[in-house]
Amino acid sequence: MTGRGHPQAAILEGTSLAETGIGGLGARVAQADFARLVANALRLTNDPALGLRLGERLNLSAHAVLGQAFMTCRDLAEVLDLFMRYYHLLSPALELEYALTDRECIITTVNIPYPELAEFGFELMGAAMRNTLRGLLGLPELTLELEFPYPAPAHHDAYRALFGDHVHFERPQGRIRFNRALLRTRLPSSNPALRALYEEECARLLQDLKGADSVAEQTLRLLRKLEGQYPQMPQLARMLNLSPRTYRRRLAGEGESFQTLLDRVRVEHATRHLTQTRLPLSTIAYMVGFNDPSNFRRAFRRWTGRSPAQVRADG
Q1: What is the model's pLDDT at position 18?
Q2: CB neighbours (10 Å) of residue 190?
Q3: Which of 21, 65, 95, 271 could in theory staple to 111 by disulfide, Cβ–Cβ 3.0 to 4.6 A?
């Protein structure tokens, strides 16, 4: 970004990094800071295809130790097994599912943080997955079927330039699909002796990541997994082995509250259902904790500044 003529201060505006600066290689960036960085980058570049362009540049070295671990695997089946166990090292708030059919491998995005940046996130993930797999397998071309849970954007030509005719919009979920036969493809860089060492380091980093999470981040992760069954504050405090009083104090020290975090997750879940399904508004309201759809409408407008109908129409 700074290489494109944008000052670092403008890129970091509104983040904690504006005060602390950016750490060295491997430094961890909080999820909220990353979301603000993306929003700043989209505004400064005025490039709607920024997610695709950045994803194309994410090669194996960009994935740090996990990328090195990928390279030591025997075949693509081992790579995907490793990826599904440790992808939180790349994106802690992302939730994925992996399934096999007779003919295909399917990676489904269950939850992507910050719905307002979902298009960027899906673009980044699709382009990065393509680039990473091509590098691992040593293939000049690789066919991935990309499904996106939103209408074709104005810059849809950029999708087709990158992925060819294997792009599908207005699908129920974001999915990446490819031929199951690829799982047997041997990696030219395979090194079983090193794999155990790299995997041990990945496990250590993942444990450190979980231990370093703020109470707010742990709360968000639990609430996202408990969609439709949101616990009360005392229940969630117990899930984190904290008393309600200590839990409130820890959140306050992080500048957060349980209600604010719960509302943030409700917005994420409601927005996903509004834009990716045709469920009635009354059903969506109930799923995010409202018995009365009119109360949900008022709350949603208060949270987002827009009505549910507007979000559904634009989705």
Answers
A1: 59
A2: 15
A3: 95
pLDDT tens-digit map of 190-210: 999 899 999 999 998 888 877
**Cα 96 to Cα 174: distance, rounded to the nearest angstrom:** 10
Which region, left, alpha or beta, applies to residue 232 given φ > 0 means left and ψ of -120 to 50 means alpha?
Answer: beta
140 phi/psi in degrees, rounded to 5:
-70, -30
pLDDT of residue 209: 75
Q: Which domains, ranges and CATH numbers included, belong to the chain?
A: 47-208 (no CATH), 214-314 (1.10.10.60)
- Please, is 259 exposed, middle or buried when counting C-beta atoms within 10 Å of its C-beta (0-12, 13-18, 19+)? exposed
Could you identify the residue written with the tokens 């997750």? 265
Is residue 2 scored above 60 in pLDDT? Answer: no
Tell me the pLDDT band of 34, cut-offs 50, 70 and 90: confident
pLDDT of residue 15: 76
Residues 6+ apart with CB under 8 A from 237: 243, 244, 246, 247, 248
Question: One-letter amino acid identity for 233?
Answer: M
Cα separation, 269 vs 133, whole angstroms: 30
Mean pLDDT of 172-186: 95
